[in-house]
Amino acid sequence: MVGLRNATMSSPSASPAADRDASNVRSVVARHRRAERAVSWTLALLVVAAFLSATAVLSFWSGVAVGTVLVVALRAPVYRRRGSTRLRADASPAAVVREFGSSTPPNLAFQWGIADEVRSVDGGSAPPDSDDGSASGTAATYEFSYLFGLRTVELEISVDVTEGDAVDEVAPVGRSAPDDPPVATVEIEGTANGRPWGSYAVAVRGGADGGSVVDVELEPTRRFGLRRLPQGWVGDRYYPDALAAQGYEVVERTVSLTR
Questions:
Q1: Disulfide check for 120: which of 46, 126, 130, 150 has CB 3.0–4.6 Å away?
Q2: 70-128: pLDDT as tens digits
Q3: What's the rounded Cα separation, in Å, for the pair 234 and 38?
Q4: Rounded Cα–Cα distance for residues 93 and 210 (Å)
Q5: For the residues of 78-136, what is the DSSP string, one character each?
Q6: Do residues 88 and 211 make contact, with C-beta atoms less than 8 angstroms apart?
Q7: What pTM did the predictor assign?
Q8: In the chain, what are the domain boundaries?
Q9: What pairing do the DSSP bridges indicate for beta strands 184-192 and 2-5?
Protein backbone atom coordinates (compact mmCIF):
# COMPACT_ATOMS: atom_id res chain seq x y z
CA MET A 1 0.00 0.00 0.00
CA VAL A 2 1.33 3.44 -0.94
CA GLY A 3 0.24 6.56 0.94
CA LEU A 4 0.22 10.19 -0.17
CA ARG A 5 -0.51 13.26 1.97
CA ASN A 6 -0.89 16.84 0.76
CA ALA A 7 -0.37 19.96 2.84
CA THR A 8 -2.99 22.58 3.59
CA MET A 9 -3.83 24.84 0.67
CA SER A 10 -4.75 28.52 0.51
CA SER A 11 -7.85 29.91 2.18
CA PRO A 12 -11.14 29.31 0.33
CA SER A 13 -13.55 31.98 -0.79
CA ALA A 14 -16.80 32.63 1.01
CA SER A 15 -19.00 31.21 -1.74
CA PRO A 16 -17.97 28.08 -3.67
CA ALA A 17 -20.77 28.54 -6.21
CA ALA A 18 -19.51 31.99 -7.14
CA ASP A 19 -16.22 30.55 -8.39
CA ARG A 20 -17.52 27.60 -10.43
CA ASP A 21 -17.06 29.34 -13.81
CA ALA A 22 -14.17 31.57 -12.81
CA SER A 23 -11.11 31.70 -15.05
CA ASN A 24 -8.88 30.28 -12.31
CA VAL A 25 -10.90 27.04 -12.26
CA ARG A 26 -10.60 26.67 -16.03
CA SER A 27 -6.90 27.51 -15.78
CA VAL A 28 -6.22 24.75 -13.23
CA VAL A 29 -8.16 22.20 -15.27
CA ALA A 30 -6.28 23.21 -18.43
CA ARG A 31 -2.90 22.89 -16.70
CA HIS A 32 -3.86 19.48 -15.37
CA ARG A 33 -4.94 18.39 -18.85
CA ARG A 34 -1.66 19.50 -20.42
CA ALA A 35 0.41 17.77 -17.74
CA GLU A 36 -1.65 14.59 -18.07
CA ARG A 37 -1.13 14.51 -21.82
CA ALA A 38 2.58 15.14 -21.37
CA VAL A 39 3.09 12.15 -19.05
CA SER A 40 0.94 9.94 -21.29
CA TRP A 41 3.02 10.81 -24.34
CA THR A 42 6.23 10.33 -22.37
CA LEU A 43 5.14 6.85 -21.34
CA ALA A 44 4.21 5.98 -24.93
CA LEU A 45 7.58 7.22 -26.18
CA LEU A 46 9.38 5.09 -23.59
CA VAL A 47 7.57 2.01 -24.90
CA VAL A 48 8.55 2.92 -28.48
CA ALA A 49 12.15 3.50 -27.37
CA ALA A 50 12.23 0.07 -25.71
CA PHE A 51 10.90 -1.50 -28.91
CA LEU A 52 13.50 0.24 -31.09
CA SER A 53 16.34 -0.61 -28.70
CA ALA A 54 15.39 -4.28 -28.61
CA THR A 55 15.09 -4.31 -32.39
CA ALA A 56 18.51 -2.70 -32.85
CA VAL A 57 20.29 -4.94 -30.34
CA LEU A 58 18.48 -8.23 -30.99
CA SER A 59 15.98 -8.53 -33.85
CA PHE A 60 12.71 -7.11 -35.12
CA TRP A 61 10.63 -9.87 -33.57
CA SER A 62 12.44 -9.48 -30.27
CA GLY A 63 11.47 -5.82 -30.34
CA VAL A 64 7.88 -6.78 -31.06
CA ALA A 65 7.93 -9.18 -28.12
CA VAL A 66 9.36 -6.54 -25.78
CA GLY A 67 6.83 -3.94 -26.93
CA THR A 68 3.93 -6.38 -26.54
CA VAL A 69 5.00 -7.37 -23.03
CA LEU A 70 5.32 -3.74 -21.99
CA VAL A 71 1.91 -2.77 -23.41
CA VAL A 72 0.19 -5.72 -21.73
CA ALA A 73 1.95 -5.03 -18.42
CA LEU A 74 1.00 -1.37 -18.49
CA ARG A 75 -2.64 -1.97 -19.41
CA ALA A 76 -3.38 -4.95 -17.15
CA PRO A 77 -5.63 -3.92 -14.20
CA VAL A 78 -3.53 -4.48 -11.11
CA TYR A 79 -4.42 -1.86 -8.48
CA ARG A 80 -7.28 0.15 -6.99
CA ARG A 81 -7.31 3.69 -5.62
CA ARG A 82 -8.75 4.54 -2.23
CA GLY A 83 -8.66 8.04 -0.82
CA SER A 84 -9.84 10.34 1.93
CA THR A 85 -9.95 14.15 1.74
CA ARG A 86 -11.04 16.65 4.36
CA LEU A 87 -12.06 20.07 3.07
CA ARG A 88 -12.97 23.35 4.70
CA ALA A 89 -15.14 26.09 3.19
CA ASP A 90 -16.31 29.46 4.45
CA ALA A 91 -19.70 28.83 2.78
CA SER A 92 -22.65 27.46 4.75
CA PRO A 93 -23.42 23.72 4.77
CA ALA A 94 -26.53 24.41 2.67
CA ALA A 95 -24.43 25.97 -0.11
CA VAL A 96 -21.87 23.16 0.05
CA VAL A 97 -24.57 20.48 -0.13
CA ARG A 98 -26.01 22.15 -3.22
CA GLU A 99 -22.56 22.15 -4.81
CA PHE A 100 -21.82 18.47 -4.19
CA GLY A 101 -25.42 17.54 -4.92
CA SER A 102 -25.35 19.20 -8.34
CA SER A 103 -24.60 17.62 -11.71
CA THR A 104 -21.07 19.06 -11.51
CA PRO A 105 -19.66 18.21 -8.04
CA PRO A 106 -16.49 20.12 -7.09
CA ASN A 107 -14.44 16.93 -6.71
CA LEU A 108 -15.12 16.01 -10.36
CA ALA A 109 -13.81 19.27 -11.82
CA PHE A 110 -11.26 17.41 -13.95
CA GLN A 111 -14.14 15.52 -15.59
CA TRP A 112 -16.87 18.14 -16.17
CA GLY A 113 -14.18 20.77 -16.74
CA ILE A 114 -12.92 19.10 -19.94
CA ALA A 115 -16.09 17.35 -21.10
CA ASP A 116 -17.28 18.26 -24.59
CA GLU A 117 -20.82 18.32 -23.25
CA VAL A 118 -22.54 18.00 -19.87
CA ARG A 119 -26.14 16.83 -20.10
CA SER A 120 -28.72 16.47 -17.35
CA VAL A 121 -31.00 13.43 -17.21
CA ASP A 122 -33.79 15.09 -19.16
CA GLY A 123 -31.38 16.06 -21.92
CA GLY A 124 -31.12 19.72 -20.96
CA SER A 125 -27.93 21.60 -20.37
CA ALA A 126 -26.69 20.90 -16.85
CA PRO A 127 -25.89 24.11 -14.95
CA PRO A 128 -22.65 24.36 -12.96
CA ASP A 129 -24.57 25.14 -9.78
CA SER A 130 -28.06 25.50 -8.37
CA ASP A 131 -29.55 28.18 -6.18
CA ASP A 132 -33.02 26.74 -5.73
CA GLY A 133 -32.19 25.14 -2.37
CA SER A 134 -32.79 21.62 -3.65
CA ALA A 135 -30.75 18.90 -1.97
CA SER A 136 -32.22 15.74 -3.44
CA GLY A 137 -29.44 15.01 -5.92
CA THR A 138 -29.37 14.74 -9.67
CA ALA A 139 -27.79 12.86 -12.56
CA ALA A 140 -25.82 13.87 -15.62
CA THR A 141 -23.80 12.55 -18.52
CA TYR A 142 -20.37 13.87 -19.41
CA GLU A 143 -19.43 13.26 -23.03
CA PHE A 144 -15.81 13.10 -24.20
CA SER A 145 -14.47 12.62 -27.70
CA TYR A 146 -11.03 11.31 -28.63
CA LEU A 147 -9.02 10.62 -31.77
CA PHE A 148 -10.53 13.57 -33.66
CA GLY A 149 -14.04 12.49 -32.77
CA LEU A 150 -13.62 8.87 -33.83
CA ARG A 151 -14.11 7.63 -30.27
CA THR A 152 -16.67 8.84 -27.77
CA VAL A 153 -16.88 8.04 -24.07
CA GLU A 154 -19.90 8.82 -21.92
CA LEU A 155 -19.43 9.15 -18.19
CA GLU A 156 -22.76 8.87 -16.39
CA ILE A 157 -22.95 10.46 -12.95
CA SER A 158 -25.63 9.72 -10.36
CA VAL A 159 -25.76 12.00 -7.30
CA ASP A 160 -27.98 11.25 -4.29
CA VAL A 161 -28.30 13.57 -1.30
CA THR A 162 -29.57 12.46 2.11
CA GLU A 163 -30.19 15.18 4.65
CA GLY A 164 -29.46 14.71 8.33
CA ASP A 165 -30.05 17.61 10.71
CA ALA A 166 -31.03 21.08 9.50
CA VAL A 167 -28.72 21.90 6.64
CA ASP A 168 -27.89 25.38 7.96
CA GLU A 169 -26.97 24.14 11.43
CA VAL A 170 -23.38 24.87 12.47
CA ALA A 171 -21.30 23.55 15.33
CA PRO A 172 -20.98 25.78 18.40
CA VAL A 173 -17.70 27.62 18.82
CA GLY A 174 -15.11 25.42 20.50
CA ARG A 175 -16.78 22.20 19.47
CA SER A 176 -15.04 19.77 17.13
CA ALA A 177 -17.16 19.89 13.99
CA PRO A 178 -15.63 16.78 12.32
CA ASP A 179 -16.96 14.69 15.24
CA ASP A 180 -20.53 15.92 14.83
CA PRO A 181 -23.13 14.02 12.77
CA PRO A 182 -23.20 15.26 9.16
CA VAL A 183 -25.99 17.63 8.20
CA ALA A 184 -26.12 15.82 4.85
CA THR A 185 -24.40 13.02 2.96
CA VAL A 186 -23.89 12.86 -0.79
CA GLU A 187 -23.32 9.63 -2.72
CA ILE A 188 -21.73 10.04 -6.16
CA GLU A 189 -21.62 7.04 -8.49
CA GLY A 190 -20.04 7.08 -11.93
CA THR A 191 -20.11 4.60 -14.82
CA ALA A 192 -18.19 4.94 -18.09
CA ASN A 193 -19.91 3.31 -21.04
CA GLY A 194 -21.81 1.08 -18.64
CA ARG A 195 -18.76 0.00 -16.60
CA PRO A 196 -17.93 1.09 -13.03
CA TRP A 197 -15.85 4.26 -13.05
CA GLY A 198 -15.80 5.65 -9.52
CA SER A 199 -17.72 6.09 -6.28
CA TYR A 200 -17.54 8.90 -3.71
CA ALA A 201 -19.14 9.34 -0.30
CA VAL A 202 -19.33 12.95 0.88
CA ALA A 203 -20.25 14.06 4.41
CA VAL A 204 -20.99 17.75 5.02
CA ARG A 205 -20.80 19.17 8.56
CA GLY A 206 -21.14 22.60 10.06
CA GLY A 207 -17.85 24.22 10.99
CA ALA A 208 -17.07 25.81 14.33
CA ASP A 209 -16.32 29.10 12.54
CA GLY A 210 -19.70 29.19 10.80
CA GLY A 211 -18.38 27.58 7.62
CA SER A 212 -18.38 23.93 6.59
CA VAL A 213 -16.27 20.80 6.93
CA VAL A 214 -16.47 18.27 4.11
CA ASP A 215 -15.14 14.70 4.16
CA VAL A 216 -14.80 13.06 0.74
CA GLU A 217 -14.14 9.32 0.58
CA LEU A 218 -13.05 7.69 -2.68
CA GLU A 219 -14.28 4.11 -2.71
CA PRO A 220 -12.43 1.60 -4.91
CA THR A 221 -14.78 0.30 -7.60
CA ARG A 222 -12.38 -0.70 -10.38
CA ARG A 223 -8.77 -1.66 -11.04
CA PHE A 224 -6.30 0.42 -13.04
CA GLY A 225 -3.30 -0.50 -15.17
CA LEU A 226 0.19 0.72 -14.34
CA ARG A 227 -0.04 3.23 -17.18
CA ARG A 228 -2.54 5.14 -15.02
CA LEU A 229 -0.01 5.70 -12.22
CA PRO A 230 1.63 8.79 -13.78
CA GLN A 231 -1.82 10.24 -14.54
CA GLY A 232 -2.83 9.63 -10.93
CA TRP A 233 0.25 11.48 -9.69
CA VAL A 234 -0.58 14.43 -11.93
CA GLY A 235 -4.17 14.43 -10.68
CA ASP A 236 -2.98 14.39 -7.05
CA ARG A 237 -0.76 17.37 -7.81
CA TYR A 238 -3.52 19.56 -9.25
CA TYR A 239 -6.51 18.27 -7.26
CA PRO A 240 -6.05 20.67 -4.29
CA ASP A 241 -5.63 23.60 -6.69
CA ALA A 242 -8.87 22.75 -8.50
CA LEU A 243 -10.75 22.61 -5.20
CA ALA A 244 -9.16 25.81 -3.90
CA ALA A 245 -10.25 27.59 -7.07
CA GLN A 246 -13.84 26.61 -6.22
CA GLY A 247 -13.64 27.83 -2.64
CA TYR A 248 -12.51 24.69 -0.79
CA GLU A 249 -9.36 24.33 1.28
CA VAL A 250 -7.73 20.89 1.51
CA VAL A 251 -7.04 20.34 5.19
CA GLU A 252 -5.89 16.74 4.88
CA ARG A 253 -5.68 14.23 2.04
CA THR A 254 -4.53 10.63 1.79
CA VAL A 255 -4.49 8.30 -1.21
CA SER A 256 -3.76 4.58 -1.06
CA LEU A 257 -3.09 2.05 -3.79
CA THR A 258 -4.30 -1.47 -3.08
CA ARG A 259 -4.93 -4.63 -5.06
A1: 126
A2: 888 888 888 788 889 999 999 999 999 999 999 999 999 999 988 888 887 744 444 44
A3: 10
A4: 9
A5: -BEEEEEEEEEESS-HHHHHHHHTSSS-GGGHHHHTT-SEEEETTSSBPPS---S---S
A6: yes
A7: 0.76
A8: 2-22+78-258
A9: unpaired
